[in-house]
Specification:
single chain, 73 residues, mainly alpha, 82% helix
Amino acid sequence: MNTLHENLASAIILQGVKDYRKVLSRYYLHPEKDSYRQEKDNLEGFFRSGWFAMLTSIDPEMLISRLNKEAMV
């Protein structure tokens, strides 16, 4: 992968992380809201997808776990 593609892959992953952090902060404040759970589930699906695996070698389960721990602090 050349630098341009690496930069794009990094930007996609970073945006997913930012979006996940944002939804986690809402989800933990209002776990009863289905829309927050759905958005959380969709982002977890992205992290576990084949496309994510093509973009990075980051372990999706480790990433999800760390972000959830971070959100609970």
